[in-house]
Design a protein that fits this description.
- The complex is a heterodimer of chains A (about 375) and B (about 120).
- Chain A has helices at about 1-15, 30-40, 50-60, 65-70, 120-155, 165-195, 205-225, 240-260, 290-295, 305-310, 315-325, and strands at about 15-20, 25-30, 80-85, 90-100, 110-115, 200-205, 225-230, 240, 265-275, 275-285, 330-335, 340-350.
- By secondary structure, chain A is of the alpha+beta class.
- Chain B is built from four helices and five strands, in the order βαβαβαββα.
- In chain B, strand 1 (about 5), helix 1 (about 10-20) and strand 2 (about 25-30) form a beta-alpha-beta unit.
- The chains are: A alpha+beta (about 375), B alpha/beta (about 120).
- The interface of A and B includes residues 138, 149 and 157 of A.
């Protein structure tokens, strides 16, 4: 009995809301945090836990989705679910979880429901995003001056330059451009996070874009001793943003070249599969371990090999690549084997069918 | 030859734009703030206004809005040079063109010539 009192005190002291029901959903126990959440959110009914969940779903920004999900699992005793959701009306976020509970012998005891408040985490993340966006914006003014005055001097507006002066200023200019690209990437990421990636759509000859990006990277490949090849079949137009699609290809091909040692190969191919254009970039590079593969498209994530081989990068390229592909209603996948190489495949809907993307004529 | 007003609070950028546009041979006046720009516009008939958006005091948007509401200023083309992305611009501000910083000399010259041509 003493143990039970202690256990109850421990459960009541945790910040996470915990509720235990029988397999049918009748509430057997709720800790103090759960009782408090229910009270604060107006979910104190006498019914089963499912009544409370339905009422909670109505407070979220996508009630239909949650109601349908829970209805779909009605009567399924093995049902497990975990999701983070926002309650726009009260300005709070929570992470909810439910799973069956079994004793040591595997006998079903009931079901656990937990609720963890994530409002402050989301707020911190929003502040961070705003900060990154503001700083990136503010960097544009001084970068305009740096780039502009370098351009003036290099154009000879301030008198003739000797070779060494030209070379040094060229280095400064190249790095100012690099900084500018980084700022552009950060702004793009913050737009994606805010759900407003802007695409200027037009009819795009994807093969031409692929060819252009491959040719632009050929000098880098040659300098690194990497054989870069392209095979492409004729494709119908893609309804997309030419600049962004170029950026996508540039990211993938330059990654492949960067991560491949001298003597290796990078192959780029473009072909049609049903109503999809499929562009694949494969390399014989260092490869990506399976545990990194899952996190590859997260922002600022860098695969362990990148650090080990001191390969430069911001960890934004693939996040941007995925955002661009998603924005076009497509799909991007990665396969890899350490020491053998990696392959990135992009599928984009072709104009003729419209695919999952918007119809031509819409944005 | 046309008469241009350059509205930009950053002195380095004013000097840079002046240098870039020097090749075109236009007359160029400068304003550091929105108030100063509106004041100059009342006295001088400009053919084109280059407008930064983030200005101390009266913001660039407000300058453009006030110009649109003032009969003598409503027809002057405005070229907006800003750090703000085009998708974040207010929809009620009319402009002959938008340039997002950072910009290159050739870009600015083309935009100015284009806006003046009409």
């Amino acid at each position: 009995v003493r143990q039970e009192i202690e256990l109850r005190a421990v459960l009541d002291s945790t910040l996470e809301g915990i509720c235990m029901t029988d397999p049918e959903g009748s509430i057997r126990f709720a800790n103090a945090s759960m009782e408090r959440f229910w009270k604060e959110l107006g979910l104190t009914t006498t019914g089963s836990v499912w009544d409370r969940i339905a009422r909670l779903a109505l407070l979220t920004s996508k009630p239909d989705y949650y109601l349908a999900t829970f209805a779909g699992f009605a009567g399924d005793r093995e049902f497990e679910f975990r999701d983070e959701f926002e309650l726009p009306g009260v300005g709070r976020s929570f992470c909810g979880f439910t799973a069956p509970v079994r004793d040591a012998g595997g006998r079903l005891l009931g079901r656990i429901f937990t609720l963890r408040e994530t409002t402050s985490e989301r707020q911190a993340e929003r502040l961070k995003d705003e900060f990154v966006a503001t700083v990136s914006h503010e960097l544009r003014t001084p970068l305009t001056s740096i780039g502009g005055y370098l351009e003036l001097v290099l154009d000879g507006d301030a008198g003739e330059l000797n070779d060494e002066q030209r070379q040094f200023l060229g280095v400064a200019q190249r790095n100012a451009e690099r900084l500018l690209r980084l700022v552009g990437d950060l702004l793009l990421i913050s737009n994606v996070e805010a759900g407003k990636l802007h695409l200027e759509r037009e009819h795009v000859d994807l093969v031409a874009v692929v060819r252009e990006s491959v040719e632009a990277l050929r000098p880098m490949a040659e300098a690194n001793g990497v054989a870069l090849s392209l095979t492409a079949e004729a494709l119908p137009d893609v309804w997309g943003d030419r600049t962004r699609l170029y950026q996508l290809l540039d990211n993938l091909v330059s990654n492949a070249v960067k991560f491949t040692a001298a003597g290796g190969r990078v192959k780029v191919s473009a072909r049609r599969v049903d109503d999809w254009a499929v562009v694949a970039v494969s390399d014989t590079g260092i490869g990506i371990p399976p545990e990194d593969l899952e996190r590859l498209f997260e922002r600022f994530f860098r695969a362990s090999g990148a650090a080990a081989h001191a390969i430069p990068g911001s960890g934004l390229g693939l996040t941007i690549a995925k955002a661009i592909v998603d924005g076009h209603g497509g799909r991007i996948t990665a396969e890899s084997e350490v020491g053998v190489g990696s392959k990135f495949s992009v599928e984009l809907p072709l104009t003729a069918s419209g695919g999952r993307a918007g119809r031509p004529g819409t944005r | 030859m046309a008469r241009l007003l350059l509205v930009e609070d950053n002195a380095d950028l004013r000097a840079l734009y002046r240098r870039w546009l020097g090749h075109l041979g236009h007359d160029l006046d400068e304003a550091e703030s929105g108030e100063q720009a509106l004041e100059l516009m009342r006295r001088v008939p400009y053919d084109l206004v280059l407008l930064d958006v983030r200005l101390p005091g009266v913001a660039g948007w407000e300058v453009a809005r006030k110009m649109a509401k003032t009969r003598e200023l409503a027809d002057i083309p405005v070229l907006i040079v800003t750090i703000v992305d085009p998708e974040d611009l207010p929809t009620d501000v009319r402009a002959a063109g938008w340039l997002t910083k950072p910009i290159a000399g050739e870009e600015l010259r083309e935009a100015v010539s284009g806006a003046l041509a009409g």
